[in-house]
Structure formats: C-alpha cells, structure tokens
Batch of 3 targets.
Target 1
Amino acid sequence: MAADIPIIDSHIHLFPESELETLAWWTPEGPLQGQFSLEQYRTATEGSTPTGFIFLETDRKNDLEAGEKDGSGWRYPLMEVSWIKRIITGQPKPGEGHTEEDASLCTAYVPWAPLPSGAAAMEKYIDLVKQEAGESWPKVKGFRYLLQDKPNGTMLQDKFIESLRLLGRKGFVFDLGVDQHNRGRAQLEEVVEMIDRAHEGVPEDQRVTFIINHMCKPDLSIYNVQTSPSFIAWRTAIFTLSKCSRTYMKLSGGFAEMPESLRQRLPEDIFDAISPWLSVVLAAFGASRIMFASDWPVCTVGVGPDAWRKWKKIVDRLCWMASFEDEEKRMIWSGTALKAYNVET
C-alpha cells in the first residue's frame, strides 16, 4: 500500500464505561467488557492509524412504541449522539479516553433511527438528533436500524419503506446490517425487495443510498463453495444487490463469521480461505463501490488485540492480488467511503 494513500475506517464503534448498561446487547459476562475508547483504538491501529473514521451506532436500548408516543423510548440512542458529540467537539468527560486533539478524527457518524415507526416519527426523531448533536450535526451522514436480528418482514413494512424514502429526500444514507449466516437466503431476498420498493418511482437524486455492512455476514466456514447452497445463494444476492442503484459494500465483519481456528491463523492463510467471498464482492461491486471497514472492537472477539492490523493485512493482500493501481487502492481505503457518505474534502 502506497504511503500517501489515506485510510478512512468506515465502521467502528466506541462507547464509554459509564454507558455500558444502555447497550442492548451488553452483559457482564459478554466478550466486550469495559469501555472502548479512541485511546484504545489508537493503540489497536498503531503503525497504520487512520486519518479518520466513521462511527456507527452501537445498538442502544430503545422502545419504538414509547418513542412514537412521547420520545422517551429514544433516550439512549440520543445519549449516544451526545457521546459522539463530545468526541467531535473535543470535550471529554474524565476517563472517557479521548482528548481535544482527537476531535478531527471522526469523519462522519451514523446514529440509530426508528425506521419501523414511519416518516412522521422519523421527522421528530431527526429533529431531536439535530438538537442533541449541536455543532457536530454536519457530520451526521446517515442512520441505521439493525435488521439482522429482526423478524422477517420488518424491512418490507410500509412504514419502513416510507422512512427509507424520507432519508433519501433528506440526503441521508441508510447503513444496512443483515445476516445471511444466521438468517439464510430469505433475509437477503427481502433486502433486494426493500431496495426496489424504496427506489420505485423516486427521482435518482432523491433515492436513498444503501451502505451494506459486513458483506451481508456470509458463512465463512464453508469448505466447498462450488456445491454449497448457502454460498451460491449469497453470491446470487451479492450480484443482484450490486445491480441496484446507490449501493455500496463494506469489506468488514469477516472474523465474526469464520471458525475460531481460522481466526487464529496468519493473515495470508485467512485470505486464502475467504478469497472466494472476497472475489465475489470485488467482481460485483468493483473498487469504486467497496470500502475498508474494521468493525472495531467487535473484530477483536476471538482474535485478540491485533485484530485491526490483521484485517488490514487481509485487505492489503486483496488489493495486491487484484493488481490494483493506486487510484483503485485509494478508493477502497478512503475514496469510496468519502463518496458514499457524501463527505466534502
């Protein structure tokens, strides 16, 4: 990788210890304990620390019904907006693990949003995010509502489609998190229908942009991809999604979907094992619609503190094997993220 190519890590999570109990997934016995701060991120990325990162919401506790009624169900997601604002404005609370000098590192951020509640609730919620974000508001480039663990049909409800269209009209992206490994082919088929419905009859410049997380979380334990129904279904969906307008793909989330034994191997061995999936993503989307993302600190689970550098080496190897020119490398490492998230440079 050329030394002058900047890195934007397009998918990281940060949270302070004081707010752990607001995380919907956190338990005292879970694999991610304590806070994960910018100070720790700098250590994890030492030697290749990105010039910027994009913060993704971390699935705070929420209550859609209470949110629609009086906004009380949105308390913890709005608390997260306040947390990332402290980073961006360089105003840490004691012990939060970031400093005034870190303020410029956050390139953009993507809060949670109540898309199932429909456009009217979304309008109210976005206004509250703007109010909470204050001077950091220009860095809010999109929203996410995790679909990977939601009931079938959630993303196809009329209110959800309505919310996606609203995001498009307002110029926000939607970060799409689904899980082919655990939810199977049906969830990916729903994604294709969701995108079609969100874009149907909408002028091109008002269509919402979809930024797909973690390669749709495929099952990376498959040995014989040529005959695997799971791999074939995933491959078909990836090529179909790539034909949809305004779709981008994050090269991320691989460690979580592979066998534990593979996570511990050298980056070169891991690359060889998952190259069928990487090749499909590359062939479908091309360098101009693929972006590097680490999913830190989730990527460390079962891998260890060197996970970020390990994943970077895998993406480095992909660029080398594809014989990319510097401009293509630049797109994968930073250019695609800046374009997809509409970040002015």
Target 2
Amino acid sequence: MGNPSRIKSFVSRVVFSLLIDGFCALCSGFSRLLSTAALAPQICVVGSGPAGFYTAQHLLKHHRLARVDIYEKLPVPFGLVRFGVAPDHPEVKNVINTFTQTAHSDRCSYYGNITIGKDVTVKELQRAYHAVVLSYGAEDNRILGIPGENLSGVYSARAFVGWYNGLPENRDLKPDLSSETAVVLGQGNVALDVARVLLSPLDILGKTDITEGSLAAIACSKIKRVWLVGRRGPLQVAFTIKELREMINLPGTRPLLDPADFTGLGDVVKDVPRPRKRLTELMVKLALEKPGEKEASRWAAATKEWGLKFQRSPLEVLPAADGKQARGIRMAVTRLEGSGESARAVPTGEVEELECGLILSSIGYRSLPLDSLIPFDPKLGIIPNSLGRVQGTPGLYCSGWVKRGPTGVIITTMNDSFDTAQSVLEDLQSGVLDLSNTKEGFKSVRSILHSRGVHPVTFSDWEKIDAAEVARGKLAGKPREKIVDPQEMLQLISH
C-alpha cells in the first residue's frame, strides 16, 4: 500500500478540483439562464382576431425564446371568426382550432376583458414590452352620408351581423323585420351573408350557432324579398362565386335578375382574370338561360326571392308618415365611365324609388384610432406603416385590417400578419429592438390593471365559457348557444 498521508493529499486535491469544476458549471448555467432571460423578447399583440393570432403564431414558431401576450377588449377571443363569419359557415370557423393551439403554448398568454387605451395605455404597454403589435381590426362601419340614414329600420350590415352572431355591443339591436322587402346596399360577401340569413329556412339556421334571440326574431320575420344594390355593374361585384352559388341553391328562394343587365357580357369577360370570368359567366347563365326542369320547379314553389340591382346609388332614405320609420329608398340611376375594376359610377340624372322597410348598409368596415399618440390616416382608416412597422414609432407594429384596410379573407390576413411578424423578427435580429433592456411584460401590466380594478380573463377562463356555450347548444341541437352578455360571462368564470 502507498503512503497514507500522500493518498489523503491526493484525494483532497481531486475533491477540491471537482468542487471547483462543479461551481464553475453552476455559475456557467446560472449565467446562461440570466443571458436567456435577457434575450427572451417580450411581445404583446393587441387584438385576438385572425390578425392577432396569426402574428403570435409566426413569432412563437420562428423565435424559440419569444414570449407573446395577446390582449382582447372582450372576455372572449377570436374576433371576426366568432362574430363576423356567417353561422352557416362552420368550416371557416375551424381555424379556431389552430388559434387554440397557439394559445396553449407555454410562451403565449391570453388576457381578455382589457380595453387598450382605457384600462392600460399603449405607452404603458411599450414600457412593459420590447414590441407592441396592434391587430385590433375595424370596429366601425363606413356611413352612407345621406338624408334619412338615422331613421328606424336603417342599420349597418356590421351591426346586423354582430346581432345574429352574438357580438355583445349589438345584442339589443332589435331590427325591424316587419316589412316584406329588405334592401342591402352593397354587393360583397357580407351583403350576401346578410341576405342569406334573412331568407334561410329556419331548419337550416336552427342547426347553426346563430344566437337564440336573433333566431326567434327571424322566425317571426315578414321579409320575403331582398334586393342587393350596387353603384356599378355586374363586372364590379365584390362577392365571390362560392357565396353566389350558396344564394342560388338556397332552399325556398328564387333569384331575380334582369336579363338586360347581362346581355353581351359573355364577350366582354373573355380577357378578364379567371375568378371574375367564372363569376360573371354564372350570373349570365342565371339571367339569360332557361333553367332546367328541376330548378324551374324549385323556383316556382319558392316563397321568397332575392335579386341584384345594378347602377343604383343611394340618395335618400324616405321616411314613413310618422317621420321616424323608413318606408323606402331613393336612388340615382348611374352609368359607368371606364371599364373593369376602375370603372366609376356617374349619375345620369334619372332617379328611382324602391319601397322597403329594412335597409342594411354593407359598404365596408372602418378602423378607428386607438390612441391620439399613434399615427393614423383617417381617410384610409389605417395606421401608416411600412411592412407593418408603424411610421416614426420604433417598437410599434400593426397587422390585419388596421394595417391594410378592411379587405380580403382570412388567408389574406394570415399572410399579412406573417409579414408583420417577420418585420418584428428582423428587428430583433438586427438589434433595432434592444433586448439588453429587460422588460417585465405582463408582470408590470398586471400591477397597473390591479390598481385600476380591472380583472383579466385568461384562456382557461374562456374555455369555461366555451364549455358552457357548447353544453347549452347541445340542449337546443346546435353547435353552441353563444352567451351575449359580458357580465354573464364574467359571472360564469367567477364560480
């Protein structure tokens, strides 16, 4: 055996060396932890519609340390997917499954029931986060700007859609459905949605997530005819072929198209893009060709009808004898100057009146400014930006309708939101966004909200509301029965 004192000395040196190595490793790990925390960008997204969720999704997917908090004014998420998509289009709402996966990420949090600009300011968000993305959509509608617009019986299509889809602010709309004729001003997909809901058989609507109150009102509706009115011609309609086919095939209804509007259009559409060509050819066929036997008998038995009126521009809503209720609309007959998408409607001097008791204005949505300190173009209704970077405000971004205007479908918003998220990622990479400046994210916002008596709704809270809605819907043979009162939502999650 060796010298015991030398062995003891050797063991001591080994143990000491191991202790030093362990301590260094611990320090290194701790240092990495601190470094990771410092490099983890805190990002907040204002708005939980498609723009908000797609922005969050892209950021989380392409930055492994990013933490994203989504803020929403209402207790419930998903924006226009919940409140804008027609009840009879459940397949479009399937995107909610993707958004739910995003919300379940351990680097993503949802905070509902928080109004930005009131409960917490954008400036306060900027102090709490490295980047703030405004994705709050278009909360208003464009106005007609004609006499009689405020008469009873005149509503924006946005409010009407909000009413039958359970948007809390529209739950008390009580639209007057007592006349036989309704006029929808506008010829886009929203206009067709509104017409379809007004004319759909109850057995179809009753199996959707349309609200209980609006279903009951439509069950008592006297409306038998809906006119969709446009300032320009058939070549300028904004609806798509899918929505037109749905109208054509709607049970219990027949189309009313004036053959004179479509004569000669077959030759004109030869050189237009394919989607426009197919859409116009379908309208031409509907207006000019004799229907097949099956279709003819279906139309003959129909008790309701819908039609397209072209080259008519609203001048005035006509009041009934009481001076309060709408009884009709006066329109200028127009002619087109130019061709294709750029054609302009010019009044001819001829005027036409149409009797109706319900007028729905579907001429577009409009974004509103969130804060006087944020740049906003009131004419275009957007936040001036370059690839989603808000002009003159580093660290502030926008996506969706507030970035580009209220156009396009969900896939358009997806691509647009990915582009904005990419701008944020590029600014993180280039150092435009300084990560050495540690931000506390929701931790600092929570204390602000607490001091103001505001109670955020989490995603797990939303899932309780969701479960309650689905359970109520099951009893009525529907996918869900939407809760339309925010106070009822908050009471439900407080138990």
Target 3
Amino acid sequence: MVSRRNSPYDCGQLIVEITTTTFTRAKKRWRMAYAALYAVRVMLSLPKELMYKKSNYKDHSEISEDGSFGSFQALKGSQREREDSYSGLKHGAKGSAPLPYTSLDVKPSTSHDETGHYGSVPNNIDHEGLAKMVKEKDMVALRKFGGVTGITTSLGTNQKNGLPGNDVEINKRRELFGSNTYPKPPSKGLFYFVADALKDMTILILCVCAALSLAFGIKEYGVEEGWYEGGSIFVAVFIVIVVSALSNFRQEIQFNKLSKISSNIKVEVFRDRHRKEISIFDVVVGDVVFLNIGDQIPADGMFLDGYSFQVDESSMTGESDYVEVDSTKNPFLLSGAKVADGYGRMLVTSVGMNTAWGEMMSSISQESNVRTPLQARLDKLTSSIGKVGLAVAFLVLLVLLIRYFTGNTKDKNGNKEYIGSKTKTDDVLNAVVRIVSAAVTIVVVAIPEGLPLAVTLTLAYSMKRMMKDQAMVRKLSACETMGSATVICTDKTGTLTLNQMKVTKFWVGQDSIEEDNSSITPNVRELFYQGVGLNTTGSVFQPLTGSKPEISGSPTEKAMLYWVVLDLGMDMEELKPRYDIIHVETFNSDKKRSGVLIKKKDDNTIHVHWKGAAEMIVATCSRYYDTNGTVKPLDVDTRSKLEKIIQGMAASSLRCIAFAHAQISNEEIDYSDEDKTHQRLKEDGLILLGIVGLKDPCRPGVIDAVKVCKAAGVDIKMITGDNIFTAKAIATECGILKKENHLTDGQVVEGAEFRNYTDAERMQKVDNIRVMARSSPFDKLLMVQCLKQKGHVVAVTGDGTNDAPALKEADIGLSMGIQGTEFQGESIFNVTAAVNDTLIFNTFVLCQIFNEFNSRSMEKKNVFKGILGNRLFIGIVGVTIVLQVVMVEFLKKFADTEKLNVKQWVVCIVIAAVSWPLGWAVKFIPVSEDPYFRIIKKSLVRFKNIL
C-alpha cells in the first residue's frame, strides 16, 4: 500500500474510514457512491503518472524518489494540514468537540504543468540584463544569475525535457520576449531599378550623344525633322531601361517571396519530452536546441551540455580561429555563428533583434556593385570605342574648323563659306554647329545603341527560361554570369544524389549478413548497440502508441539508427541508462570518423567505439569479430579480403561505414593536454566489429543534365568525401566519367594527392581531373583557385558548411538545401560561353554589314542596282569583312574572341542576311511626305474645328 504521506490519493485510508466509521444506512450509501467516484478519478489519473515516469521524469530535480512529481511534494505542507485536520476531526481537536462524521478531501492535486515547475512562463527575470550578459560574455553577471542552472530555472525550462509544446505556452513566451525574426529593409521600388539601369556606362554615353544629336539636329533642321536621330537613340535607351528595370523589379518581388522560404531553416528543439523539428522563426526563449557540426546557431543562448564543441564566430567577430565552448569557462553562444566541431545542446536566452546577430543585421547593407563578366567586357568595349570615337571626332572637328576658317570650304554654288569679316555672325554660328554636329555624329555612330538592348532582351529571356526550370535569379545580370560558366564543381550527396540513405549491405568479419541476422551472437549485437546508439548525433523517440520510431539526425545517422533499431532490435531507452558517456570525438570532413568513450555502469568497464570511413577504420584495427563473437587476428590475407569487400560495395555505389571497438582500463585513458581535461580516444589496436553499405540513389534527371552541360562545353568535376571507388562508381553512373576510364589516367584523384602536388603540377593536371575523392574543404577551395587562375569561370554547388569556402571563392556559388536541386547548363548555341559571346559579336557586326546595303537607298526597293559601279562601297565592305575575319580567327587575346568553325560562320551569315528581306518588306509601308509632328498638328486642328 502506498504511504499516505507519499501519495496524493490515499485510497487505502479512505476505504478504512468508510468501513470502520459508524454511519446510518443512508449515509453509508452516500459514502460508498462517493468512494466509487473517487476511485474512478484515481484510476483515470494513473496513465498520466505512468507517462511521466516513462519519460524519465524521475531524473528531474523536482521529482521525488517514489516517482511522484515535485508539485506533489510542493503540496506536502497543505497535505500535512489536511492530515492534522483530519486527525483532529476524527479524534477531537483541542478546544473543539469531535464531529459525528468524517470529512473527505477529494480535491485532485495540481498537475506538474500547472504549478510552474515545468514550462511556466517567467515574469520577473531581467531579460535585458540576460541578453547583455550573453552578448558581452560576462562571467560575473552569469554568476549573479546563478549560473546556467539558475538561468534555466528562471526561464522555467526543464533541461531534460524542454518546454511544453502547447500553443498557449509558446505564444506567451513570444509575447514576453519577442519572436525570432528580424525587420527587413523596405523593398526596392521600380524607380530604384530605373536609376540602377541608368548607371550603366554605355547607357550614359548614349544619353549624352542622344542629347547632343537632338540639340544639333533641331538647330540645323528644325523640330519637325531634326529630332529623328537623337530621338531614335533616346527610344532605344528608354526600351533598355524599361526592360531591365521591370525584369529586375519583378524578380525582386519573387525573390522576396522565395527568401522567406529559403531562410526558413529547420532546427531541432526539445518539446513535450522529445525532439521535434521546427522553423527557426518559431524558436522562443527557454527552448532547448540541439546543435550539430555545420548548424547555424539560431539565437543567443547558453551551452547546456555536449562534446568537443567549437564554434566559428568569424561572421560576428572577424576572428578566424574557432572558439571552444563548454559549460564552465565559456558557455556563451551567439546567433549567426556556426558549429565548427562537436555537438551539444543550448538554452535560448534571447531571440530576434535582442541578439547580437539581430543588432548587426539591422546596421549593415547587403548591396553589391560587382560587375558581371559580360558587363565588364561591355564597359571595356564602350570605353575603348568611346576613346577612339572621341579622338576621331576631335580630329574631324579640328580639320573641318581649320578648313572652314581658312576658306577651303564652299557652298552649293561654289562660293567660299567664310570670307573673313564679310561673313555674317549667324552664318558662322550655323557653320560651326554643322561641323560640331558632324563630329558628334561620328561618336553616335561609333557607340552601338542596339547592343545594350540586345543584351537586355537576351538576359530577360534567359531569366524567364530559368524560372520555368524553377531556378530563381535575383538580378537580371546574374543570368549572364551563370551563362559564362566553363566549369562546374559539384559535390555528390544531395546534389547528384537524393541524400536518402539506406543500409543495404552488412558484413561481420568476412561474412555477409542477410535479412536473417540471428547468426550474430548477443555480445556482438550489444557492441553494435553501443557503437551505433551511443556514438551518434541522432536520436530515437518511441511513441507510446507503439508505432514506428521517430528518428532524427543527418541522413547517414538516420539510416544507421533505423537499421540497428528495426533490424538488430536496439531499444534506445533501455540502452542509454546503462552507460555513462565520458568523451566524444565528433565527425567532421577532415577526420572522416567519430568516436565515443563510454563506461558501463554494471561492471564499470570502459569501452572505446569508432565509426567512419571503412578503409580508415580498418587501418586502425589489428583484430576482428566473427559472427560467433570470436576475436580473430587481422592478418594480411584477411585485411586484403576486407579491402576487396569494401571496394566491391563501393563499386556498387555504396557508402561504406565501418565500426571498431576496444575495451580499455582507466590507466589506458589518454589525454591531449597536460591538465588532463581533454581525453583522447585510443586509435590503434582496435577490434573490427563490422561494415555496412549505405545506398544513396542518383537524382532523377541528373544524367541528362550532365549530358547537356557537356554538349554546351561546360566541364563537370565531382568533389566528394567518399572513397575513390564509391566516387568513381557514382561519377560513372551520372555520366561524368566514361566506363572505360581508368584510375591511372589522372581523371580520378584523392584529395591528399591533389593537395601534395606542386603548384606547377596542379596547374598542369587540374583541367584533366574529373573526380576528386576523400577531399577536404581545403582541397575543394584549392581546385577552385587553380581553375580561376587558368581563366575559367567556375561555378560551385554545395549544401553544407564545409562547402562555404569554395562557394565564396567561386565566380558562381549555387548554395542548395539538403534536398539539393536539379541543374542544367545551357547556352544559346549549345557551345561554350566564350564561343557563344563570339557568335553574338560576329552576328552583330555582320548585321551591320548587310544593313549597309539596305542603307544605299532609303526609297528604292532594289538596293543592288548599280552596286558594281560603286567601287568605294565595295572596297569598304570588303575591308570590313576581312578585318572581322582576322579579329575573330586570329586576334583571340586582343579581341577576346574564339575561333569559329564553318558551320558557325554560316549560322552568323544566315542570321545577318535576314536584314535584307526585312529591309525590302519595310519599304512597302507607305510613309507620308509630311513630317510626323505636322500630321499630328493637322489632326489636332481638325479635331478642334469639329468641336
């Protein structure tokens, strides 16, 4: 029977009192009915208590030894008062007569949630002081708050179970402490993009030329006819500005919508006693957040617990060195920083604008004025043409002025235009204006006003095409940058593959274990439980309904946890309480493995477990387990067989993960520092447990995308952390490598090999490399730098923090989510970007040449009549064609062009020749002899007379 002092429902005492107290028959009936109702309420309360006990609430400081919640203990005083009152009523209190009946207190005890010990919203905490303490990393202030434990209690958070998940609790915290969002700068309006388009150098020069041409034209020919040339240039400039501004404005609106989705990062928090994934915007003060390597810290907070935890605060402080975080010396975590190593849990203390990142985001601008490759080339071309045009115009101006004032120019009648003082001032001014107008015309003709329009329309078309492919481009000019890519450096997982791992192969020793794993002995099975269940950053939550377990973590961790739970029968809730975790070596892209040092509580034995890249783990082992649990020596023959097993799985596109174990004594625990504060795990003489193969299928459509890229002349290089056999298998499956390629031809290398090349060797071999396996972030960065030095426009795809250095270094960084994205290389003529640019340039020049024939006569439909008699015209056209051929075929460095083949020349000529039938068709359109403005004027007069 449960003691009355330890239970809120003392059923035994209730029954005794009912059966031993003398009542009338009617009173007994009422008491028995009441007792039945009370018993029903007690029975209904038992599942809730069992749920609390199931969730390990007995470990919480507010829970009593027998499993009842601290809130019940908090009511101990009132319980005693009821006991004393009850005793007094029964036996007669001092100074009062005993009552003829028993008083029953059947008010149910307050639940744990209602008392405020779990998830209560704090009202009296100094939140401003708390936020300032974290930003300034003030240890003195931390002690005043009572340390991390004191802050946790003040915020009403249960370290082991997090916050309640009910909306009322979360909304109260959001109202009290704010939401985890930042105010965005006002959206850019249409006029902003109009002003931005006007900053283009070509547009500015054309505007100046148009204004001068318009002024001189009106001065010389009057308003009715003098506006044609300058006005046409203004119309072309207007179309360029409108198309560019509208495209960028439309993209800005769509990009803002997309950014709300892309910035909606998912984080894992502990609510309702289990891990759950929520939006970063839904994080509130008091949340317990799980952090793994590569994660961005979602808010300011305090470190609760974890292992080997280091953060990169370079985005906040500018310091490149990683900062070590622990619960004693430095427990402060700043939002915006990234987890560089280890894993752990944090308590959120500030969100949104109250964080260090929020303050910084409100004071910086993200605008960039970097010019794209085509913009830079156009600026250079415009500048060169402008300089040459101005020089020629100045020379013409000087010659014409000298000729005029020296009396060498004559009018239509053969008379000298200038005869000294006899010439009227008005005639002199008109002559000077005519001469200046001729000089300005040279500059106007030199600047191709149609080129900016052609480029803008082409990029707008490209943007529309990319949007159909679900690729969002924020700025119109970015289409051109992506179109200029000559090399794409892509990772494997999540980009070329689906990032959906599943264990498909399992080996213990030299034996392959199929679906029936009953041949594995219990001791080996237990070691796998330890090696997977305790050496992981994932978690397993088993719902009370008995449905499929909820497993969280990275795709690799989830695959292994699913395997060990569903196939090997591991119970995580039963496993963890039996072991103490002493030290953890977390996985990162450099080490390719993770380890854990644990202590078994039953016999105090200490165990080391490693898991990671199969060939690296096998290299640390000197023995291995077979399926019977027997430890056997790992001799040369066995090691060779294991290597072949690994290579066989890798050749099947499987990611190979091996597990190793060793039992050590206390004396064998090694330390990495003299103070013996950082343990170091045993790394040699291990016993191999087994090897698993994880399948990550290729993404649908990736083979076709690679083919299109290759056809467009874009080189694809796969850079991955997997071993060389898995990397080659995936690259062959995706079409990056051909099946007949060999590892010795330099197309497949490992990161260490590439890293150890001399600078000259790297520059020589980098173009030939197709696959780089076992690479580190530094290796990927090094390859991007080499490719850029060789003149390539490099695009890098990545979906993890380890890709950040290469993404920043690349000309084009395609940062993807965990699901990756499809990509496709495309150019207008299905050629390389350099040839594509040459084709556009060549076609434009040829269009001008063909248009010269149309310009021979503005009225006659047959522009070829008498052409053979005009030797000067034929000579100019011939010289222009010869110079264009020389520029394209021989002046590669000077003109920044590429050689074209016969087929490409034919395409350019055919496109340019279209101007002849167009010019012929346009001349059939009737044109009034009256100027346009005169027609409008007459129409207005007629309309006025009618009125």
